[in-house]
Amino acid sequence: MNDAEIARLQAENEGLRAELDETNQGVLALYAELDNQAAQLREASELKSRFLSYMSHEFRTPLGSILSIARLLADEMDGPLTDEQRKQVAFVSGAARELSDMVDDLLDLAKIEAGRITISPAWFELMDLFSALRGMFRPIVDGTDADLVFEDPEGLPKLYTDDKKVSQILRNFISNALKFTPRGEVRVSARLEGSDRVRFTVRDTGIGIPEELQHVLFEDFTQVDSPLQKRVRGTGLGLSLCKQFAELLGGEVGLSSIVGKGSEFFVSLPLAITAEDADDHA
Length: 282
Ligand code: ADP
Hints:
Blueprint: H1 3-74, H2 83-113, E1 122-124, H3 126-142, E2 145-150, E3 159-161, H4 163-179, E4 183-193, E5 197-204, H5 211-214, H6 227-231, H7 238-248, E6 252-258, E7 262-270, H8 275-280
Parallel strand pairs: 2-4
Antiparallel strand pairs: 1-3, 4-5, 5-7, 6-7
Adenosine-5'-diphosphate is lined by residues 172, 176-177, 180, 204, 206-207, 209, 217, 222-224, 229, 234-240, 263.
């Protein structure tokens, strides 16, 4: 190799090093930018959680008063009501109950986002869970043209997980199914999935959900704009909570639906929550 060639290679080398230095600086600047954005996102998310929980607490007390006063009035403690007044009081307590459910959902979401939700696993029988749900929904089903059927969870072992959260997920699925099934049937079932998971399904013969909206339903505040939907109020938070609760329990949610035929929502969960999952949120 002659001197000229060595000099050329050296020059080339230096050029490359300068280029590398520049790239490195670019990468460092990008890292700094990313860090900055991550910090801003964290701050925004913390602010959102704090705002949600503050707002929810502030709403709870006055809502509680409205509900108790409406109950006193409905019980006619302060004298009899006319038919019209009874209707009006029922309207006030219905609206207050809806708001109170919404506040509870918001509070749960804020707790999950702040990592402050607790999991309390216990052993329980599916049969007991289904009976409790059946009792809870009896008054609602009595006023609709849809049947609510719980299939016998025969042969399924006891579960070791947070029964309150499982119940909350199923309650949401069932109450949605009843809301959007003007007539026909809502069927709840559970079956083993492999050897260590259980899959709960809530199937309805209701209005169904357009395919293009199915993947966003589990996000916050999503509602389908359909003629029936306009008559039924809700928050659009229920399914997002279901998804987050399922994930806390080491599981997942999903759905399939055909417009005009019905929908099927499922949650698949480990039969027994692992110590890790429980510890993460204890
Ligand atoms: P909410 O019911 O409070 O509006 P959800 O998150 O539980 O909030 O549900 C979001 C939306 O998903 C509902 O408003 C409705 O448009 C749609 N949806 C949920 N379940 C069903 C169902 N079984 N059949 C048809 N639409 C449904």
